[in-house]
Design goal:
about 210 residues, Arc Repressor Mutant, subunit A, elongated, 9 helices, 2 domains
């Protein structure tokens, strides 16, 4: 190994070890240390040596060992953050997950898949995979993140199935701050969801 390659190897490993526990790294996190080819080779060598683990293609972490479960993968939140950085995108729960989180549905999707403002693709993770499906940035470009969650949930439910009970649940389950943000974020939603936003936010609703 050349002196330069050895230097890149050492710098990459030092950065990984100095990071916060559970952090997931991508090659772009090391490009200030050397060329992309040199960084890729360094990461590959450290994986082969067991210094770091591969959480997916282009995704690396320091594995944790559990006395019973063995080697553990990264926390999903850290993994999702790394995928978003790698793709220069934003990740969101599916409409079904959003509806469940907001108390609008009891359905809990079992298949691991996320919405992304980037391209649709599959990321292999061990024996499984994470599915990423494209969502138009228009629907999630809200000032308040909770508004985007409501848009995704209502789009998944469908206009026919959104009724007064749905509005009541949103008024009950959203904080006053999140309700107040809905009218401003209505421009990011389809017209029928914008109308629901205004009903949920209205102080006169139900009087």
């Amino acid at each position: 190994m050349s002196k330069h390659a050895d230097s890149v190897d050492s710098a990459v490993l030092a950065r990984v070890r100095s990071g916060t526990e559970g952090h997931v790294w991508t090659p772009s996190d090391f490009l200030d240390l050397g060329s992309r080819a040199a960084v890729d080779k360094a990461l590959s060598r450290h994986c082969q040596a067991g210094h770091i683990g591969r959480a997916g293609r282009g995704l690396y972490h320091v594995p944790k060992n559990h006395p019973i479960l063995g080697q553990l993968g990264p926390d999903p939140r850290d993994l999702h953050d790394a995928i978003a950085r790698m793709d220069n995108s934003q990740l969101f729960p599916t409409g079904a997950h959003a509806a469940n989180a907001l108390g609008l549905s009891d359905q809990i999707p079992m298949r691991p898949f996320l919405l992304t403002t980037g391209r649709s693709r599959r990321i292999r993770q061990g024996k499984g995979e994470i599915l990423l499906r494209h969502v138009s940035p228009r629907f999630v470009s809200t000032k308040n993140p909770k508004s985007a969650q409501v848009i995704l949930a209502l789009r998944w439910l469908g206009r026919r199935f959104v009724d007064d009970d749905t509005v009541a649940k949103l008024r009950r389950n959203l904080s006053p701050k999140d309700r107040a943000a809905l009218p401003t974020d209505a421009a990011s939603a389809p017209a029928w969801i914008g109308a629901i936003f205004r009903r949920v936010a209205s102080d006169d609703y139900g009087r």
